[in-house]
User: What shape does this take?
Amino acid sequence: MSEDQPDIGDLRQGLDEVDAGIVRLIAQRRELIAAIAEVKQHGTAVIQDPERERKVLDGVMAVATELGVSASLVRSIFRELISDSVAQQARHLNGDGGGRARVAFQGAAHAYSHAAAQKYLSGRGLHGELTGFRTFRDAVSALLAGDADLAVLPIENTTAGSINEVYALLREHQLYIVGEETWKVDHCLAAAQDVPLSSLTRILSHPQGLEQCAQFLQSLPNAVPTTYFDTAGAMQAVAAAGDASVGAIASPEAAAAYGLVVLRHDISDSADNYTRFVVLSTTPAAADVRIPCKTSLILATRHEEGALLRCLEVLSGSGHSMTKLESRPRPGRPWEYLFFLDFEGNAADPRTSAALDELRSAALYIKVLGSYPAKALRPEARPGDLPGPQADASPAETLEAVAADEAPAVRRSRQYKLVDRAARSADTIVRVGDVLVGGDGFVVMAGPCSVEGQDQITACARFVRDQGAHVLRGGVFKPRTSPYAFQGLGWDGLDLLVAAGRETGLPVVTEVMAVDQVQRMAQAADILQVGARNMQNFDLLRELGKVDRPVLLKRGLSSTIEEWLAAAEYVVAQGNQQVILCERGIRTFESATRNTLDLSAVAVVRERSHLPVIVDPSHGTGQRRYVAPMAWAARAAGAHGLLIEVHPDPDRALSDADQSLSFDQFGALMRRLAAIPGPAREPARAG
Ligand code: PEP
Ligand code: MN
Assistant: This one.
């Protein structure tokens, strides 16, 4: 080691000091939050103020940009800090902390319900005495008998749906919901010994666990799924039996607790598998009106036409947004239904209590189950934002101003009707993950032409995310002119793309080439791209119309705008309304560029259709030096976003090397983009 090289030990010590300093600052921040909570205690200020949160985020992101720190890293850290402060203030207002509660749950120790109950208690600063019961009904009986203060029961799962038995218990007994909790379910398959999956003959779990892993279970050749009263209990039973041909499905924590070997992790059919739990009590609890709350109720409607609609109108008319509606059979009355309804609001708030009164007169029967602090809320979506200065004039507005002087004669195409502007005056906004494409936002989708390997796609994902891109692109099935050219990594490539998207929090877009790829791809990708060569593959378009996934429809190599919109109509006519158009250049006599990027199509499409339209200047020009200027021009022309090819080593790209931007070039494009007037908007949400 040379004299002037610092010692790694010293550097690490320095790092430890910085880390300790960060924690001390967090503690200091929490003290300030406590002081603020104290002030709010005596006032009427709400504890969740999106406007204030947005200001906090903007402020720290500006500091980050100044210091050369990734703004998105800082944003995600501060989102966590802000949600911690909201919880801290809610606890304060609730007067929580320090108490003890006897809590009943269903299952054995280390069951998901056990974990959720612990999470709920620790979130409220309570100590608990947790007791597991064999059935939901047993847990409720303990509560009703006064042997428990609270019962924590699962009510719905994002993969398997509602848990009917718990709804039945809510209907049958005088129970109140005083809280809710969510838990990310992370199922694994475990056995007494490390055996091949093919040697398992039986798999034990709670019916919900089996249902949430149905696809995985079907892939096991010899195993019969067997229901057990509880997930963790199933692990316990497998451990006790010591039979190596029996497996169980539960959490990895339960497997560890009962000394089992995990044979396979993450076996849920859906990676985002959450369960929502309700916290029940025999007495209602009031929640402070400054805490974001939900109210749950059971409703029977009158035997009149439009009766349910009238009830729902009471809620929407009074500004309450509904988060769940479940219908269950009404016992003893064939073909009549009870509705279980959750909405955002607090019965302690006069506006909500007035709405409840109105509901009482509109409904045949209503039972309010309680108002409680909300945990499970659908993440709010945000229009695509751009880093940097706010745009001052939107070209879309300019376009409208000009068009107002010279409105086109009302024209209707005979080739399409649903995608025609005449069918909808409002712009269609397509939700991709938590990003909105269309309307006022501007969305950047970026990544390599083809996924080439894990390192390449991960590096791209991180880089484009840090530059402010909203969606990660990457082809895995490639439509190549020559059959000898690189054809893409196929399904393995899709796994790599999805993993990179998950790691960076970016939704992914990839091309689907064949009808038989559609269903499988729709399970994993967030947007399904139809390539230029397939724009008039009508069977493919029809198949895409049957899935609930956004479609990115590229304009054909030599298609007119009318043909392009008629192709979109094929998708929409089958039911799927989520189509994003993409101008990617057309074949003309011009040979200086790979294609001729038709930016006038953006203006025409925005006039003729309500669908969002983005621009791909990479394929549109085919040469990297023209990509940035055309990207800026697209934004100025009123496009809703961009699709850009970026590669860590563009000259070595396995496809479309000439048009792929280097990281530096993409960074420069993004920095300048923010300065181009256009529909730039800061995110509509802070959380
Ligand atoms: C692509 O996006 O990589 C692609 C193949 O595009 P296009 O269909 O527009 O040629
Ligand atoms: Mn390409």
The radius of gyration is 28 Å. Residues 387-394, 680-687 have pLDDT under 50 and may be disordered. The pocket of phosphoenolpyruvate (ligand 1) is lined by residues 449, 475, 479, 531-533, 554, 584, 619 (CB under 6 Å). The first strand starts at residue 100 and ends at 106.
